[in-house]
User: Fold this.
Amino acid sequence: MANYSTQSDMRVTHIFSLFSLLVCIQLLEVVGQSTPSAILSENSTLSKISSNESNMSTPLLGDAENNLSTTPTTLTSASGSGSVTEKVDNNLTTVKADNESSTTQVTPTLNTSTQRVITPAPKTATTTSSSTTIMSIPTPTPSPLPANTDIGQCTCDMTSAGCDVNCCCDTDCSDLDRQAFSYCTDHNYLTTNERYCFREGMIVTNNSEYKTNLTQDGLLCIMFDNYDERNYYTIPDMIETLEEFDTYKHLYARPSYSFSSTNNQPEIVKQHYQAGDPVYTVSDADVVGMLGLPAPLTTKQCDDGNTAPYLYDKDYECVRLLADVAMDCTQEVALATRVYYRDMKIVPNPAMLKRSAASNPVPAKQTQNVTTTPPSTTTPPSGESASEASSPSNSSDQPSTETTTSNGSSTTAEGASPTALSRTTLYSNESMVAIEMETPVMCMNRLGVKYACNATEEELQAPVYNSTAGTCSYVVLEVTYTITHNGTEGITSARVAFLLGEITSEKSSLLQTFRTVYRWAGEKEEELFLRSGNPGYQVDQPIMAGKLVTKNTSSAIELNQDRNSWMTLLTADSKGLCVSNTLQRTPIKFGVNMRSGCLVEVMFTNMSEACKLIHEGAISALAGDRPDRVATFGTSLVANPGDWVTVLETNTPPEIVGSATTEAKCSGVVLGLHIEIAYANVGSLANPQAKVVGVVYRYDKPQDIAFMCVAPYCQPGRLRARQAFEVKSSVSFVDASQPPYRAAAEIPIIDVHLPGDFFYPFLTAVGGRPRAATWLLTVLLAVSLARGSVCV
Amino acid sequence: MAPGQSTVIRSSLPYQILLYCNGWYSGAFVIAELLVFIYKGETLPYARGNLPAEIILLLLLGCLEGVRLFLGQKGNLTERGMAVGLSLVLSMATLVGFLYLTLWQTYVLRLEVILTGIGLAFIGLELIFGLISIISFARAAPYG
Assistant:
């Protein structure tokens, strides 16, 4: 290129170079390339434009491809004079352009001596963007985002003008600060270098952090990557109209909470109850509610809002906190029996509610215990339900009446309105099931003994506070609803049983138990037998075990009625001492490995005498009422002892223990029992059924126990102190399932014989079996054939 | 041609050798590129429609190469400057094709850089030898 001497010539060159640059980029765009990393422009006067300048110049392109604006385009040329380059650089640094209202104008630089305005030629404008409109009123445009760039360069810098801990890229941190950092939280997410064959983070398919390992540096690695967009999000447009928003939502929204204005009230649409449905009740004030079953929902405290699901037997234990026993005794409704059954009836069928819905304006959700409170408060504060109910109700009802009902001054409105009549009919309907209280009501004293309460009817309804003793008696401890139902026909009867107790003023909390038991109508309670599995044992079901009883010639298994005392482990009482009572022992459940221990206490002085007692106590604590047969399946019949496996024993302790050798020592005491139950899965692999195949009671070896004193207790007077020895038992389950195996048939032996006269002219076979000479002939034949083929 | 009369063969032997070898090479190149495209399509994410477009472009490039090499060989053997010139014109188009595969396609593997580099070398040498042959044919024409 020639050197330009005059300024006018230089200006022409500037325009020309700008034009050629644009044409170059436009050409590339037309070709369909995304980002050429290097462009060889043939006759460009520009020698070099540094990358940030090209970034600034890219908005000039208006609505050009995003990818074009991102790459640091380097324009190189073989020829070009330095002076021209400098001038062009100066001019290009201040190129400005609006994003959408692409008013492309190039303002002059201030650092040059003469101010020049370079107005792009109309030709240039048309090449860059087809629609060039000049907006009279400038709209506020959002700050432009560079496309296809990693904009979050230091995401851990959360405090502006402050140093963030462990954020090494934070410019507010000094080098000394950084020395206090334990590590750097900032990640070098993407280092893009087009020239490298290996690039960190070549492919981003999801948002998780990734790690790239250089496995090979071979022929199949990428040298030029022209698809950089895949690593970046596209820059979304701002949403300005509601329609646009809806389009976005339709395109991208996933199911979330729907804010549709549906009625919150549960609609009673079913013809009959289904398992899990709430059981509807109706109070004497004709408020429809649901049978509650207080349960610990989030904490251990009773939540009265829980409803009893239909047909599911539930058993909840929860705590009531009592601030002041004297006051709560009479004030707290949850302690009184009456709230659990009085003044409410169970709706036998939800269809009945539906039938009366037209005349019943309050299909209200009602929580437990609110039957005692005035109905005006239980009425939902929703004008919605009132207005909804008013539409099916007859037209004589004014809307004003309904609003007064919901406002709370209910009695007059109800009395005046014709619907009051229908309300009373719902409660007094004969088909409504009243909840009967089982008699006698059981009481439990402080020692845990249950007995039939001798209390008046009044006392049974609500607790009584004895101010002199400071006790509150007849407090509800247990509530058990027994509901008899008949499938689709609904609930036929309901009973409630209570266990009442006494609380003292020291107690600030009360443990209550709530149960529901569902029975099919016609079902006999005594015939029910809860299996442990059908047929294979199910996890957490008690192991079925009993004793073999032989009568005359026939034998059968004697099985305890209580399934929880079939096969048991020892249990400790609240002090950790052994309990010999069978009822309180822990049942062994299938598949649950357990270990339990309890303490046997002795004193130094009576140790030698106690040896026998200890031994017996330990044996009884260990084995309890030991069964000798265990059912192989949960469905094994007691009449068929063949289905029951014999319990094996090792190290069975002797009945009589040897006497103490010294005063403070017992020898030969068994202190441990380990039960091992082997089971095997049988049946289909997809549906394995556990079968118990063997049970072993493994007693610990008899050992000597000696009284040991710890330093302060070794004084002679202190030797009366009690010392405890632990008796422990455990159960473990062994899966002895045989893995399935595949047996393949033997490879068949193929018996191939040549026909007897195969070599007839040469040889004569005897009995169809070729002799040794036959083989020789075959080899000769093969060799000659091979030679012949080679020669050919 | 009468016996005893010496004839000057103006066809360029190196040009012919180049064209012959280039023919084999182009066939191998197209096959190798197709395999590379299969590899890339399996392992790398592509924008919609890019991969088919690139494969079509490769096939077109292969056809163009065939025509170019045929014209070049025929022109060289028949000493027709016109056919060789046409071949050179076509080589401009194939040059762009090769450059696309070297620089601007979605992913450029190192293998492709090597393969296209060889192709470009062929084109470059054939350009030189083709020009020489055209000149020699043209100079011979008034005397022929």
